[in-house]
Design a protein that fits this description.
Strand order of the largest sheet of chain B: 6-7-8-3-9-10
Low-confidence stretches of chain A: none
Strand content of chain A: under 5%
CATH topology of chain A: MetI-like fold
Low-confidence stretches of chain B: none
CATH architecture of chain B: 3-Layer(aba) Sandwich
Number of domains of chain A: 1
Radius of gyration of chain A: 21 Å
Distance between the termini of chain A: 52 Å
CATH superfamily of chain A: MetI-like
Oligomer: heterodimer
Helix content of chain A: over 70%
Number of strands of chain B: 10
Mean pLDDT of chain B: 91
Helix content of chain B: 25-40%
Number of strands of chain A: 0
Order of helices and strands of chain B: EEEHEEHEHHHEHEHEEHH
Structural class of chain B: alpha/beta
Strand content of chain B: 15-25%
Largest interface: A-B, 22 and 32 residues
Shape of chain A: flat
CATH topology of chain B: Rossmann fold
CATH superfamily of chain B: P-loop containing nucleotide triphosphate hydrolases
CATH class of chain A: Mainly Alpha
Radius of gyration of chain B: 18 Å
Bound molecules: adenosine-5'-triphosphate, magnesium ion
Number of helices of chain B: 9
Order of helices and strands of chain A: HHHHHHHH
CATH architecture of chain A: Orthogonal Bundle
């Protein structure tokens, strides 16, 4: 392996990793917001909106991110809407992730017993307070493993960002292979970069899950 | 005993869930300081009646008055009503993610906006009264069923309700824990609390009640003083119901 090549081009990877991380985090945060919003709509059974929410969840979970990105990047301009690569990437990731996050939150809400809501009501709490102090904290502790799995999944999905001409890790690797035919080195650095990003996230997620499980409210 | 002031009035209450009536023309009054025990066969509508009084179910027709104020259908008023009416359920629905003390303080602090420190002192006094001060920091999961029910009673009491509703609070308990919960309720009754109790514990009903209401198929079939009701029930339905408790 050409170590000189590696040290020469490592900075390119670091920069690209920054792009992946930055856009990935932004997309994931938005996905969490979208998911939470959808799951609230479904939990409170808000008329009309709940059907829109389920249609969205199905659509986002059953189309590949690559297709969603192509639609945003190549399709929308035909309708007169041009978005930059970065915006496409973030919108695409949060569109995809929102559906997954909504499902993760929903399973949490489902795990909260119905009696909890009534116990809160009979104390005179408002539905907002019941959500905030009673239902959401319990739902969240159930949802955390699924939410963490989604974060890792979405970070991996960022590898298709290069399809909309975004200079992410994949893009840099493909570029270097095309220019210098240093396939081994380029791929080695690509794998290393993803591992450096994803391993800590996975470890953190596992630690969080363990803490939640054993903190278990007096279990 | 004489009871003068009417606290709760239920008049011509009708309720159904869409497949036949569950409560039909139910009317009665609860006076301040009175303890009323509602008994009746399974499915006769006892829980439904309590849930209507606490605004957990919408009523079809008729009305409910608390302190002379109509609370029947106005949804906006239910939050006020629920603060005046404490309810303890069969399935000890404490909040599992909060400690005992946090469970108890949620109502007074978040709903009634009382000062946390004062409320906590009061909570400790109440916990002491039910013999659970040492469980203050425990989570519900670390408590027995009987202990959970006593916490649930404290949780309702600290709101200083004018009326307490108990729906078969000992039905899901192991026999040896029934007593500790009933004792707390008996003490409350002696202390002058106004209570509406649904129970299958006939000995307890007899001991605690000022008046018995016998509910059958959604109607009040009989009502009377406990001695009269248990020793000489007037209706045939009540006779048969009471017989099922004899061996
Ligand atoms: N949410 C509901 N939807 C439909 N029917 C209901 C509902 N809740 C209760 N019912 C019906 O209403 C009737 C009265 O039920 P309720 O729970 O009030 O009886 P209960 O007297 O409390 O019985 P138990 O002693 O078994 O607790 C029953 O026939 C029951 O099947
Ligand atoms: Mg019942």
């Amino acid at each position: 392996m050409d170590t000189a090549f590696i040290s020469e081009y490592a900075p390119l990877y670091i920069e690209a990793a920054g792009v992946t991380l930055w856009l990935g985090s932004l997309g994931i945060l938005l996905a969490l917001a979208v998911g939470l919003f959808c799951s609230f709509i479904q939990y409170f059974r808000i008329p009309v909106l709940r059907y829109i929410a389920s249609a969205y969840i199905e659509l986002s979970r059953n189309t590949p991110l690559l297709v969603q990105l192509f639609f945003l990047y190549f399709g929308l301009p035909k309708l007169g809407i041009s978005l930059s690569s970065e915006v496409c990437a973030v919108v695409g990731l949060s569109f995809l992730g929102g559906g997954y996050m909504a499902e993760a939150f929903r399973s949490g809400f489902q795990a909260v017993e119905k009696g909890q809501m009534e116990a809160g009501l009979s104390l005179g709490l408002s539905s907002g307070q019941i959500m905030r102090y009673i239902v959401f904290p319990q739902a969240l502790s159930v949802s955390v493993p699924a939410l963490c799995a989604n974060v890792v999944f979405l970070l991996k999905e960022t590898s298709v960002f290069s399809a909309v001409a975004l200079a992410d890790l994949m893009y840099v690797a493909k570029d270097l292979i095309g220019l210098y035919y240093k396939t081994e080195e380029a791929l080695f650095m690509l794998v290393a970069a993803y591992l450096i990003i994803l391993l800590p996230v996975s470890v953190l997620a596992a630690a969080l899950e363990r803490r939640l499980r054993y903190a278990g409210f007096g279990n | 005993m004489d009871f003068e002031e009417v606290l709760l009035e239920v008049r011509h209450l009708h309720k159904d869930y869409g497949n036949g009536p569950v409560l039909e023309d139910v009317s009665f009054q609860v006076h301040k300081g009175e303890v009323i025990v509602i008994i009746g066969p399974s499915g006769c509508g006892k829980s439904t009646l309590l849930r209507c009084i606490n605004g957990l179910e919408e009523i079809v027709s008729g009305g409910i008055w608390l302190d002379g104020e109509a609370v029947g259908k106005d949804k906006a008023k239910w939050r006020e009503v629920r603060q005046k009416v404490g309810m303890v359920f069969q399935n000890y629905d404490l909040f599992p993610h909060m400690t005992v003390i946090d469970n108890i303080l949620l109502g007074p602090v978040k709903v009634q906006k009382r000062e946390k420190k004062k409320a906590e002192e009061e909570a400790e006094k109440l916990l002491e009264r039910v013999g659970l001060l040492d469980k203050k920091k425990a989570y519900p999961r670390q408590l027995s069923g009987g202990q959970k029910q006593r916490v649930a009673i404290v949780q309702a009491l600290i709101m200083k309700p004018e009326l307490m509703l108990f729906d078969e609070v000992t039905a899901a308990l192991d026999p040896e824990m029934v007593r500790e919960v009933l004792d707390v309720m008996l003490e409350l009754a002696k202390g002058g609390s106004t209570m509406l109790i649904v129970t299958h514990e006939m000995q307890f009903a007899r001991a605690v009640a000022d008046r018995i209401i016998f509910l059958d198929e959604g109607r009040i079939a009989e009502t009377g003083l406990p001695e009269a009701f248990f020793d000489q029930p007037k209706t045939e339905r009540a006779c048969r119901f009471l017989d099922t408790f004899l061996f």
